[in-house]
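Morning run. Coffee first, then this:
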Amino acid sequence: MAPTTSSEIRGTTEGRLSPEFIINVGKTIGMQYKTVLISRNLRRSSTMAFYAVCAGITAAGGDVRDAGRMASPAMPFCSKGSECCIMIGSPDRTDINSMFLSNIDGSLFTDSQMKAVGSGLDTEKELPPYSRVGRIRKVTGGLENYRSRVTEYVGNVDCHVVMDCASDCTCFVAPHLMADLGADLTSINCHPDGRSPGRMPAPEEQNLKNLSRSVKSSPGSIGIAFNSNGTRLAVFDEEGNYLDGGTTLAILMAHMNPGKVALPVDASLSVTDALQSSEIIWTRKGHRSLGEAVKAKGLDMGGNMNGYFVFPNVSYSLDGITAGALMAKIAGETNLTQLVSDLAPSFRSDFSVPCHGDKEEISKSIHDKVSTLEYDNLSEVDGWRVDMESGWFLITLSEKDETVYITAEGRDKMYSASIMGIATDIVKSSMKKLNV
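And here it is:
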């Protein structure tokens, strides 16, 4: 079986995500869901995977609704009548392909749904007779409906935006949406010219040098970039400076001022400072848990440190496009460079400790030691996040390798080093106690 990470099935075309395996995935999905909405990015391997998964679904008697090349956040807006969705194409990498499985409201598959898929992949399948082979039909309207909903949610934008869509499926909706909102737009890699991706698809600083230069040469503009399927956002301020995910999240949270919000347990001080009057629901690190938490607990929004956001007033999909529109709106009303300079400084560090032993016993020991501390707040989601007077630390036992990871952040270097020392001592003394 190809590896599944959260709601993603991924691998290489010539390896674990071969056409034969993809057909098996399609058979499994087609037996569990009667009608499946499918979209894909512009890479050639995604086209191959699309036809392979369609073959499997229809062979199992399921029907396919082909949404074409469509950014992920728009899929819920043409999903009526479907039972689940598949987005084909790795959003951040070129060396693998992926299939992301989601519900029709945009929320990613839960653990139980993925377990059912995994179980089905390892089961012999008795296919229906030829007369019951499923059908494929095109669906339309998703992009227009999505643009209308986001325009209603965001309002007017008075800002000059330089946008980079990596020459992938996001270019079919994001530039048009920004024009709908009233922004002045300069586009880079916003045309489906067969070069997908037009740059390395992850919207990280080293991949966005052209965007930075364009912003610097356009006084008063900001830069916005997406990964290949529109689920992730990167922003440059008016001086062409790259804003890391935590900074973008902090600015957006301060502007939105949500009553209840989902944040991962590694959220920075700048983010929690912006949410003094909000109720924070902590989630596991990463992005899969965001939509699930927002949906299950009826929250106002969610976001993480890597540029992923969920806006339930639009959908439960990971939605970098709506986040980009909101950042442009903020920039039109104030100045991102000034907002960044107003953020209080902090100092963050990471450390890891090899772990060889009974993780359950180590966890119990760490829990007991953490419980004796004086703290402002304790979260035991994905480890132990301990919020103290002027900082926090997080201890996480990795499920993938034999390592304990520690992150600490303080308002000054001395305090950051101090709480890192506290966390490290807790971990090492737990190991020593158990003779690990």
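The two ends are 34 Å apart (CA to CA). Good start to the day.
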